[in-house]
Amino acid sequence: MAPRPMIAGNWKMNGTKTMAIDLAQNLVARSKAAASVPRIALCPPAALLETVSRAVSGSPIVVGAQDCHPKDKGAHTGDTSAWLLKDVGCTYVIVGHSERRADHAETDAIVKSKAEAALAAGLTPIICVGETQSQRDAGKANDVVRGQILGSLPSSATATNVVIAYEPVWAIGTGRTATPNDVQDMHAVVRETFAKGRTDGADLTILYGGSVKGSNAKSLMSVPGVNGALVGGASLDAADFWAIIQSVA
Ligand code: PEP
User: What domain count does the chain have?
Assistant: First the structure.
C-alpha cells in the first residue's frame, strides 16, 4: 500500500527561539484547522528541539533532528545521541544529509551506524542519498544512489521503520529542481534497490528534496513514486511550507 505522504522541514542552522516558537505555532494552528494533513515533521537545530517539541505538542506535527551520533553516550564533545533526541521529543532524525556528508566527511558506513543508532533508540531515520552534478554529468547518478542506499541502510531496516530522501546535491538550496522525469526514474531506482529480496518495497516512504517550494510542489509531489518532500529553505516560511503541505494533503 502507498505510504501516507510526508513533508519534513529541515531548518538547517537557522532560527532563534522566538522564531521557532512563532513558526511552529503558526503551523500548529493551520494543521488543527485543516480537514486533513499528511505526516509533518519539523527538524530544527539541536538547541531548539525541545522548544519546538513543546510548541507542537498535542498537534499532528512531530519533531525530527538533523543528525545523531552512532554511540549512546560517552566522550563525544558536541555530539548528541539518538537516545537523547528521543528523550527530548523527537520522532525522526535526518542522517546522511549531503551537507553533513560534505562538511563532516560522513561516509555511507558512518551514516549506516547513525541510522542503526536511531532505530535502536526508537527513532525513524530519514536517510539522505543523492548524486552531485559531476556524477550526474558522468552518467553515474543511478550507481551512486544505489551504492549509497546499499551502504547506508541498516540490515534491520524495513519499509516502515526508515524513510529515504532522494536529494540531488546540485538541487539543494540552488533553486534548481530535478525534472519530474528524472525524479520518477530515480525514485524507481531507490525503491527497486531497497526492495531487492524483500516484499515491502511498495510501503517505503521516499521523499524528494531539492529546492521544493509552494510554487513547484504540486508538480513534484504528483510524480509517481514520490511520497512527499524534505524541504530546506522553504520550510522557514510558514505560508510557503504550508503550501507544500497542502500539495499532498
Ligand atoms: C535540504 O536541505 O534538505 C533541502 C532540500 O534544501 P532546499 O529545499 O533549500 O533545497
Answer: 1
> Would you say residue 19 lies in a domain?
no
Question: In the annotation, is 50 catalytic?
Answer: no
Would 30 be classed as within a structural domain?
no
Q: 143 alpha carbon to ligand 1 midpoint, in Å?
A: 22
Question: In the chain, where do the E strands start and end?
Answer: 6-10, 39-43, 61-65, 90-95, 124-129, 163-166, 205-209, 228-231
Active-site hit among 69, 97, 106, 131: 97
* Structural domain containing residue 216: 37-246
The residues, any chain, with a CB within 8 Å of residue 138's CB and separated by 6 or more, are none
Is residue 167 part of the annotated active site? The answer reads yes
Does residue 4 lie within any of the structural domains?
Answer: no
Nearest partner of 246 among 31, 52, 43, 25, judged by Cα: 31
CATH of the domain at 237: 3.20.20.70
Give me the tens of pLDDT residue by residue for the chain, a chain 249 residues long: 789 999 999 999 999 999 999 999 999 999 999 999 999 999 999 999 999 999 999 999 999 999 999 999 999 999 999 999 999 999 999 999 999 999 999 999 999 999 999 999 999 999 999 999 999 999 999 999 999 999 999 999 999 999 999 999 999 999 998 899 999 999 999 999 999 989 999 999 999 999 999 999 999 999 999 999 999 999 999 999 999 999 998
Testing ligand 1's pocket by substitution, the residue of 98, 212, 215, 247 carrying the most ligand atoms inside 8 A of its CB is 212
Confirm whether 203 is domain-assigned.
Answer: yes
